[in-house]
Amino acid sequence: MGAVVGTILVAINQGDALLTGSVTGEILMKILLTYCVPYCVSTYASVSAVGAAD
């Protein structure tokens, strides 16, 4: 699920740079962070849910 949300966020935030081919190192770092955030949120929520069930 994090990959789907990350892809949508990348398209919204860096779509213009991707379409024009003006991707820099800074934009690549932003893209990586954009994928990391939903993954971390999803992982945290899952771990919290398992911990709450104990």
Structure description:
The protein has two helices and no strands. Helices cover 89% and strands 0% of the residues. The protein has one domain (2-53). It has helices at residues 2-20, 25-53. Helix 1 (2-20) runs antiparallel to helix 2 (25-53).
Instruction: Give the count of helical stretches.
Output: 2
Helix content: over 70%
Backbone structural class: mainly alpha
Please report the total strand number as a whole number: 0
Radius of gyration: 14 Å
User: What fraction of residues sit in β-strands?
Assistant: under 5%
Cα distance spanning the termini: 25 Å
The coarse overall form would be: elongated
Q: Which series of helices and strands comes N to C?
A: HH
Give me the secondary-structure topology.
Blueprint: H1 2-20, H2 25-53
Task: List the main descriptive attributes of the protein structure presented here.
89% helix; 54 residues; 2 helices; 0% strand; mainly alpha
Quick structural overview:
This protein is mainly alpha-helical. The chain contains 2 helices and no strands.
